[in-house]
Amino acid sequence: MSVPSETLLEALRWRYATKAFDAGRSIPDDLWQTLEDTLVLTPSSYGLQPWRFLVIRDAALKAELRPHSWNQSQITDASHLVVLLSRRHIEGRDLDRLIEATASSRGLDPTTLAGYRQMMAKDLVDGPRSATIERWASNQVYIALGNLMTAAALLGIDTCPIEGFSPPDYDRLLGLDDSDYRSCVVCACGYRSSEDRYSGLAKVRYDRSELIEQR
Amino acid sequence: MSVPSETLLEALRWRYATKAFDAGRSIPDDLWQTLEDTLVLTPSSYGLQPWRFLVIRDAALKAELRPHSWNQSQITDASHLVVLLSRRHIEGRDLDRLIEATASSRGLDPTTLAGYRQMMAKDLVDGPRSATIERWASNQVYIALGNLMTAAALLGIDTCPIEGFSPPDYDRLLGLDDSDYRSCVVCACGYRSSEDRYSGLAKVRYDRSELIEQR
Fold first, then answer.
1. What are the chain A neighbours of B164 within 8 Å (beta carbons)?
2. How many structural domains does chain A have?
3. Which residues fall within 8 angstroms of residue B103, CB to CB, at 6 or more apart?
4. How far is B21 from chain A (nearest CA, A)?
5. Residue A17's beta-bridge partner residues?
6. What CATH code is carried by the domain that includes residue B45?
7. Average pLDDT of chain A, as a whole number
8. What does the pLDDT look like over A14-53, one tens digit per residue?
9. Rounded to whole angstroms, how far apart are CA atoms A61 and A7?
């Protein structure tokens, strides 16, 4: 079932933050479905999935977003633009939703999960983490981003993670101002242009000895 | 080069937050090296790599950490315990370090990268993101966490991400109080115990239609 180490590392070395996408090339539907499945399968703290993912293919909407994204061409040229949204707050109803889904998936009586609900509530709703819940939720979304970029590389799909955008403008243009979610981070997905000079540059990583310490 | 969709999805469906590890089973050195390479290859904003990774194998240190980790058995039973550290602040010297590494990797004169340095400084050191730089750095670390969990699953290695620990106690026990890094999140890596009842439970994910919206 597992893949050889070299296959994994080759994919991770092949990937880079694509600056110029081939605007004429779309990700085939079946591969895109796999990436959506990947997003859905992303792990999260307690399994709470405090996120939503907007998949933007509409050219007019991409063009509207581009000036609010440091005018980066990836916004309009990438095949699929994903805006990863994080939940603004975590309340009792979020816990109830997960408890119901868990009971349903596993054929359990929801009341048997009361301890699990209480543990989450003490941590996220009533506990110290409630004061920084936006940060907690955005951390979870970045797990999804990491998972998405690695999965895409393994499938031969290019990505460019984008923090250089205006979340308030995105929220307004995407109609999120009155919703439970906010724009957290963006990931453009598609295929590199043969003319992207960045694709040929050496990857820059600090030495393993600077980054990893054995204890 | 790329892997079939089904291989990827099978690995992501196989993985789960392992609650009981087989304490007698170690990850072979060559596979562990691959996971360290995976961590080093993790993408980050601007390529700044605002992280370090402590790999803990020492049984005595694991035992010291466990009571500060909600007493979870994964801390002591997993083959390799990774503490992912995030940088506390981003300063000019962090930018210089990246500029030097970039110039060195790509055979460039560092002065040709002045615009790149200025862009980072305006955003992270002098700009609005400087006020929330710990959050920014922790977001990057969660990319590494997502990448690590997905890579491990593809290699047939089990993981358990752990937010249930006391960062101040970890920082103290790991000697980080006066360092540039703080304990951000933990990931236990190893092999599931055949007796972990969680391994057989159905995965709980909201419907794709609740999580993904096409625009």
1. 123
2. 1
3. B109, B110, B112, B113
4. 18
5. A159
6. 3.40.109.10
7. 97
8. 999 999 999 999 999 999 999 999 999 999 999 999 999 9
9. 36
Asked if pLDDT for residue A128 goes beyond 90, the answer is no
Q: Specify which residues A82 forms β-bridges with.
A: A55, A187
Kindly report the number of other CB atoms within 10 A of residue B127's CB atom: 12
**Nearest beta carbon to residue B142 from set A52, A56, A139:** A139
Q: Which two tokens stand for residue A153?
A: 């590389």
Q: Which residues of B touch A204 (CB under 8 A)?
A: 47, 98, 101-102, 105-106
**Taking 90 as the threshold, does the pLDDT of residue B100 lie above it?**
yes
Cβ-Cβ pairs closer than 8 A, A with B, add up to 231
Cβ atoms of A36 and B208 within 8 Å: the answer is yes
The domain of B85 spans 5-211
Distance in angstroms (rounded) separating the CA atoms of residues A9 and B158? 18
| Secondary structure letter of residue B17 according to DSSP | B
- Most B CBs within 10 A among A75, A84, A154, A197, hence the mutation to make, goes to A154
Query: Is B215 in Cβ contact with A54 (below 8 Å)?
Result: yes
The ipTM (two decimal places) reads: 0.98
Concatenating the DSSP letter of every residue in chain A gives -PPPHHHHHHHHHH--B-SSB-TT----HHHHHHHHHHHHH---GGG---EEEEEE--HHHHHHHGGGTTT-THHHHSSEEEEEEEES---HHHHHHHHHHHHHHHT--GGGGHHHHHHHIIIIISSGGGGGHHHHHHHHHHHHHHHHHHHHHHTT-EEEEE--S-HHHHHHHTT-TTSSEEEEEEEEEE-B-TT-GGGGSPP----HHHHEEE-
Q: Could A9 and B37 be called an inter-chain contact, meaning their C-beta atoms sit closer than 8 Å?
A: yes
Please state the pTM of the whole predicted model.
Answer: 0.98
Nearest partner of B10 among B150, B160, B209, B205, judged by Cα: B150
